[in-house]
Design the sequence.
């Protein structure tokens, strides 16, 4: 077990190292305007001096070395355009709680709605007309097939128009958070309901469930005690990723409702071409998504003792 | 020229025993003779006139919902191709002076936008661009995915190396790759296709590899190998039917995903330049005016068309994958 975790950790670090190196090298190809606040007014000499000050006149490997030694000291550089001379780490630290609060609330709602929905759909496959299953499937197809970017807009449109909810959030007014949280939750509801339904249908065709049914155990008891428990195991893997991804915030929802979180930040700095912040954010995003997968795998191995270490579950 | 045959210890064992049988003296006709197809004997022996594509199409045609969406999808695809050739069709970017923000009417079916462009032709031109992106991404994904996946699964020596590479790159979130590539390169249709193709084939390759690994040493493949079937024939006849289901599903889902990505990337300001109408550009333009109730049609027409396209691809893909799975043919 310890060996597996250690190996997994090492691989994650290697991945992170490769991504950061590639991103760092690629960003050197960017136009240098992204490093100065008022590039148009600067003379060639000033630009050169500025580059020297930032250490950008050195060869690439030397820059990379500088970057890594700064990184190990917890320094991601300072912003140039977005908020002049504010350290990137400080900007991130300010934004993360906002995104997390909204993300975790919506994830909680998604689990509270999605899991019962999955169970009901799976049970409905055993009824005659399967109406519940059909309705649920239609909902899932709709959410999965229509790009999130599109239904977010539709929710905002109808929410503000007919429910008279404000278009932008303001702290202190919980009503303003309804639409963004709903938008974020929908995707996860469909996701968890779909997988739980599939795993439960698979599970309920197994022999031990048939035996229980033949013995006359009530359907609700079978579905709660046997089928759900076994079907939930594979889903455990997704939850840490979902939790950790809330750190990232949603790029789209946050800028739609002007939420001052992480997702809105990335869009903002990309539009302003603030290279240092983009680089810092990419590093942060890559790190947390890798962490999410790592925690998911380890948790999965702990929850289900049948899973052999060092072998990744195939396919999905 | 000797063709390539796959050999391992199992094949050798089997060909040895086949050799023993051969060494007994049978007459030519006794040993091998084509039998005519006889239905009654066939039933007894479990042989049937089974045809893979026949069964696939039959079980697909039974699914009414899927057929409806297939017809819708084909209709839209055909129309996007035909639309610019229709006699009245103007250039999508033509600006009609004095016809700004007109509500849908007889002359402009979907109305006009804030600078006086006909939304009808803009939308169909956008659908063309978006579908082009989607199809290109799906094709690259399928081709690269199959080639790498089959190599990965069939050639034992490559397995370790490929798996390690996969484990590293699979951790990179795709959105991030697309954002970074679009940020660094000049925005445009080809940049977008490149960015989306870069990592999407990894998943397909993984799925193909898993399937190939499962099927390659099944008895019927072993038998084919012993009988000296050429490798390409094993691939086409024995392996491909199992992959068709996965591949069509992946391809059908890759298209709506690519279209959705395009909308998203355009939204964060890294999309295709505004002169090229895409669904993303149209939706973004519609979003800026959606709060004025007289103009909200500028958001809703592109949104509705896009949703119809993505939903039909999704449903047709899923149903076809179910129909193409040989496991579902045995009733």
Sequence:
């Amino acid at each position: 077990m310890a060996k597996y975790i250690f190996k997994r950790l090492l691989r994650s670090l290697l991945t992170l190292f490769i991504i950061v190196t590639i991103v760092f090298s690629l960003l050197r190809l960017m136009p240098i305007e992204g490093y100065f606040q008022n590039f148009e007014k600067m003379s060639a000499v000033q630009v050169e001096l500025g580059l020297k000050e930032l250490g950008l006149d050195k060869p690439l490997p030397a820059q990379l070395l500088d970057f890594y030694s700064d990184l190990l000291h917890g320094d991601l550089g300072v912003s140039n355009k977005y908020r002049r001379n504010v350290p990137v780490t400080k900007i991130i630290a300010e934004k993360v709680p906002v995104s997390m609060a909204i993300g975790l609330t919506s994830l909680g709602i998604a689990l509270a709605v999605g899991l019962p929905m999955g169970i009901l759909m799976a049970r409905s496959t055993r009824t005659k007309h399967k109406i519940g299953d059909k309705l649920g499937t239609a909902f899932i197809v709709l959410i999965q097939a229509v790009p999130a970017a599109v239904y977010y807009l539709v929710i905002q449109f109808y929410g503000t128009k007919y429910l008279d909810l404000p278009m932008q959030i303001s702290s202190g007014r919980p009503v303003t958070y309804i639409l963004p949280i709903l938008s974020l939750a929908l995707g996860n509801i469909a996701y968890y309901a779909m997988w739980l339904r599939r795993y439960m249908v698979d599970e309920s065709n197994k022999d031990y469930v048939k035996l229980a049914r033949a013995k006359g155990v009530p359907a609700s008891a079978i579905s709660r005690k046997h089928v759900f428990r076994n079907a939930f195991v594979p889903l455990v893997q997704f939850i840490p990723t979902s939790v950790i991804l809330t750190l990232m915030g949603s790029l789209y929802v946050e800028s739609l409702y002007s939420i001052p979180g992480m997702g809105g930040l990335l869009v903002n700095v990309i539009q302003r071409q603030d290279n240092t912040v983009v680089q810092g954010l990419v590093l942060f995003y890559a790190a947390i998504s890798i962490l999410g997968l790592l925690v998911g795998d380890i948790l999965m191995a702990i929850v289900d003792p049948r899973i052999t270490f060092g072998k990744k579950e195939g396919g999905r | 020229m000797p063709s390539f045959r796959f050999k391992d210890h199992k094949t050798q064992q089997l060909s040895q025993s086949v050799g023993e049988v051969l060494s007994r003296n049978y007459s030519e006709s006794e040993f091998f003779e084509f039998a005519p197809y006889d239905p009654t004997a066939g039933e007894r022996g479990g042989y049937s006139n089974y045809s893979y594509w026949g069964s696939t199409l039959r079980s697909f045609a039974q699914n009414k919902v899927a057929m409806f969406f297939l017809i819708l999808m084909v209709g839209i695809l055909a129309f996007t191709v035909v639309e610019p050739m229709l006699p009245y069709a103007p250039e999508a970017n033509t600006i009609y002076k004095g016809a700004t923000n007109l509500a849908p009417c007889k002359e402009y079916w979907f109305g006009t936008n804030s600078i006086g462009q006909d939304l009808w032709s803009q939308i169909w031109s956008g659908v063309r661009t978006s579908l082009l992106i989607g199809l290109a991404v799906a094709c690259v994904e399928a081709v690269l995915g199959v080639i790498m996946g089959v190599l990965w699964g069939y050639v034992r020596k490559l397995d370790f190396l490929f798996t390690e590479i996969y484990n590293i790159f699979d951790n990179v979130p795709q959105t991030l790759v697309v954002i970074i590539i679009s940020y660094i390169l000049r925005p445009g249709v080809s940049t977008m296709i490149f960015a989306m193709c870069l990592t999407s084939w990894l998943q397909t390759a993984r799925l193909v590899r898993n399937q190939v690994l499962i099927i390659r040493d099944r008895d019927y493949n072993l038998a084919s190998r012993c009988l000296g079937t050429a490798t390409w024939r094993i691939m086409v006849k024995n392996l491909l039917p199992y992959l068709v289901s996965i591949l069509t599903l992946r391809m059908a889902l890759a298209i709506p995903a690519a279209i959705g990505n395009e909308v998203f990337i355009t939204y964060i300001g890294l999309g295709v330049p505004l002169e090229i109408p895409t669904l993303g550009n149209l939706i973004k333009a519609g979003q800026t005016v959606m709060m004025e109730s007289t103009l909200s049609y500028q958001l809703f027409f592109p949104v509705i068309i896009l949703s119809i396209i993505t939903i039909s691809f999704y449903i047709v893909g899923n149903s076809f994958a179910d129909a193409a799975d040989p496991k579902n043919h045995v009733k």
About this structure: The interface with chain B takes residues 11-12, 14-15, 18-19, 23, 26-27, 29-30, 141-142, 144-150, 153-154, 157, 160-161, 167, 251-252, 255, 266-267, 270-271, 278, 282, 285-286, 289-290, 293, 312, 314-315 of chain A (CB under 8 Å). Residues 88-124 of chain A form the longest helix (37 residues). Confidence is low (pLDDT under 50) at residues 309-316 of chain A.
